[in-house]
Amino acid sequence: MREYNLFVIKKEYFELYKNRPLYLFNILKKLFYFQTNFNYGITLYEQLCNKINVIRIREYLNDKYDLKCNNLFYVDQVLIELKPSRIILKSKMNYPRIIKSFNCYNRFIFVCDFNNDDYFWLNAVCSLQYI
């Protein structure tokens, strides 16, 4: 099972990390598993990332797939959970097709699968044929 966490990175940090994604992945992974200083974790997240407009994405998914869901969706065998901090996609597939839809929302989305040490800029891989 793959669990993709989609983060919207602020433009200035996109510029800083676009050619060094491993550094950004390591920061987000530490933040994801951070347990000791909660306030520091929130501060670091707010410095790097923009919050997700859950309402806008929920409306988009509901309209596109004719659904009436709140923040949890099941589309094309992918479980999608919308949170203000990130979008979570759980799938048995590598790079499910629906992941492309989120590139329209923001072009600075960084995708992390912490369990499999996988990461990529969504905008960079959306042009690949298998997605």
Helix content: 25-40%
Instruction: Give a count of the beta strands, DSSP E runs of length 2 or more.
Output: 7
Strand content: 25-35%
Number of continuous helical runs? 5
The protein's oligomeric status is single chain
Distance between the termini: 17 Å
Q: Can you summarize the main beta sheet? A: 7 strands, antiparallel
Secondary-structure element series: EHHHEHEEEEEH
The best one-word shape is globular
Mean pLDDT: 91
> Could you tell me the radius of gyration in angstroms?
14 Å
Low-confidence stretches: none
Going by helix content, strand content and strand pairing, the class is: alpha+beta
Describe this structure in words.
It contains five helices and seven strands; from the N terminus they run E-H-H-H-E-H-E-E-E-E-E-H. The model has no long low-confidence stretch (mean pLDDT 91). The radius of gyration is 14 Å and the shape is globular. Strands 1, 2, 3, 4, 5, 6 and 7 form a seven-stranded antiparallel β-sheet that branches. It is α+β, with helices and mostly antiparallel strands and 131 residues long.
